[in-house]
Amino acid sequence: MSHHHVTAVTEKLVQPILEEMNLELVEVEYKQEGKNWYLRVFIDKPEGVDIEECGQVSEKLSEKLDEEDPIEFPYFLEVASPGAERPLKTQEDFKKYVGEHVYMKLYEPIDQEKEFEGTLVSFENETAIVEIRIKTKKKQLEVPFSKIAKANLAVTFN
């Protein structure tokens, strides 16, 4: 049973479950870590997914996988959402999330800031413009893509 087949079957089985719950499928991955195989299904929706929803999807999907039984090895099924702390890895990710609240950690400081949260104002020419608030003032930092060690969407509770 090829990896591709496992993920394709899983996608087919999970799709109707997600449609019913108004969730979107981000990706399915099937991989070995140590001795164990993991089938991971990442789901999302604009306002974010909670643990309960992940649990419901996991239960319903488990039943369907047991019926179809596409996987010959024992494996762990994990349903998760990348939404909360979705990492921004590629320049495409940055373009996609302009306007969102992000958290960044840099390899070297810019304006004495090495770690900050703010709004991603724009991303072009390999540079992110992030607006951060310092007490009551707002300031914009220009952050070259090459200096970003880690970035993800920050969860904000308004």
Q: Ends: how far apart?
A: 47 Å
What is the residue-mean pLDDT, rounded to a whole number? 87
| Count of extended strands | 8
- Strand order in space, largest sheet: 7-6-5-4-8
Amount of beta strand: 35-45%
Number of helices: 3
SSE ordering: HEEHEHEEEEE
Q: Main β-sheet, in a few words?
A: 5 strands, antiparallel
Unreliable stretches covering 5 or more consecutive residues: none
Radius of gyration: 19 Å
Report on the structure:
- The protein has 158 residues and is α+β, with helices and mostly antiparallel strands.
- It contains 3 helices and 8 strands.
- The strands form 2 sheets. A 5-stranded antiparallel sheet has the order 7-6-5-4-8. Strands 1-2-3 form a 3-stranded mixed sheet.
- Strand 2, helix 2 and strand 3 form a beta-alpha-beta unit.
- The relative contact order is 0.14.
- The model has no long low-confidence stretch (mean pLDDT 87).
Q: What can be said about this structure in brief?
A:
It contains 3 helices and 8 strands; from the N terminus they run αββαβαβββββ.
What is the element layout, followed by pairings?
Elements: H1 3-20, E1 24-33, E2 36-44, H2 51-68, E3 75-80, H3 91-96, E4 101-110, E5 113-124, E6 127-134, E7 137-144, E8 148-153
Helix pairs in contact: 1-2
